[in-house]
């Protein structure tokens, strides 16, 4: 039977959960403190760029199964299941900031007018769900509820696809009653035989961190190998491709680049190290990954400076600002390091990104934003490819050469064909190509 659900927080995760769960036939109210977001969503407009999301948004709004509201109290009272999907950003010491979660927990406790299942979708450190349970028991003694941990694994840019066809769904739970409710919430996924992992709260919480820490490690591993390949005259693309042929390794996440960014890997690796510290368990491997990734980001600036010479008085075209393609998300993007590095040393920037310029401009209003990649290249001394947008893969190098003043390319994602770039008169530098 379909469920009445509220999803608190309508950001990248909460919005996808809202449209996805309503598409599964549930009645959903998405709640946010951001009035503008709620107004846009009720008008069928997505506040974020995520391919395909508006189609699901409109379809489910029209069906009447999906609504959005800022009235958190009433929405909780009317729901049987409450999903928490608010942000858990890093504090200065790397620990996850649970203040948004805590504020939602207080609202839930205040409005616990009947049995409810409280589902944590936000990425939270081990022990948080048990802490939520304790807090609600303190604020609303004697009330009936269950707590479930249901971490999210979606990838921005492929979020709808990932929500409807996940590799697995993880549910940490303690009571059979909550298990039955979650089974109904995800009935549609059960029907298409998605593997369900039913486990303890702590196991579910740690599965999420272990997965992200592993992926961050894999990226960092190939980045360091790329740096070595570059120095000894080997080709990382052939190395990565061949490594990936080994079934034990798999070719995924073996693409060298400017260092991982985004809203998850940097903060989740820091949080896992903090959790290790808290419980006195050695997490030195993950600490090393964090440090190596920071160095990789800085290495890109150093590489650029080496081929450009001094940045002073030079114009650099930065192509790509989002932390990866198919998103407008700029949280912890490697573009920050590159832009900052150029500006600090007196360079000028022409920037382009198909989706992320508005977000980037809020942080760097002083650089010039361009309507197209070619506008950005006009008069530039060098170009740096930072995000792997498809349109940059097929960049018209003949046209680029005519528009640019200089002839330098730093391709931090190995998108272009080095031989073709050189044929067109460029000095080309990729990552891991000796
Ligand atoms: N973005 C991803 O790719 C991704 C993937 C998996 C897991 N996660 C995790 O999911 C969580 C959410 O991430 P996100 O990227 O969607 O964050 P986000 O910043 O895009 O969205 C969070 C939303 O919560 C809202 N909010 C904050 N406090 C609120 C409150 N008290 N009541 C109602 N709404 C409130 C904010 O206004 C915002 O719209 C994080 O823990 C993150 O680690 C994110």
Task: Explain what the structure shows.
By secondary structure, the chain is an alpha/beta fold. Strand 4, helix 5 and strand 5 form a beta-alpha-beta unit. The chain is built from 19 helices and 14 strands. The longest helix is centred in the middle third of the chain and has 32 residues, at 201-232. Nicotinamide-adenine-dinucleotide binds next to helix 1 and helix 5.
What is the C-alpha radius of gyration, as a whole number of Å?
Answer: 23 Å
Q: Considering the protein shown, what is the CATH homologous superfamily of the largest domain? A: NAD(P)-binding Rossmann-like Domain
CATH class of the largest domain: Alpha Beta
Q: Major beta sheet, specifics? A: 6 strands, parallel
Mean pLDDT: 97
For the record, the count of structural domains works out to 2
What amount of the residues lies in strands?
Answer: 5-15%
CATH architectural label of the largest domain: 3-Layer(aba) Sandwich
Distance between the termini: 59 Å
Q: In terms of structural class, how would the helical and strand content be classed?
A: alpha/beta
Helix segment count? 19
CATH topology (level 3) name of the largest domain: Rossmann fold
- Bound ligands: nicotinamide-adenine-dinucleotide
Q: Any idea what the shape is?
A: globular
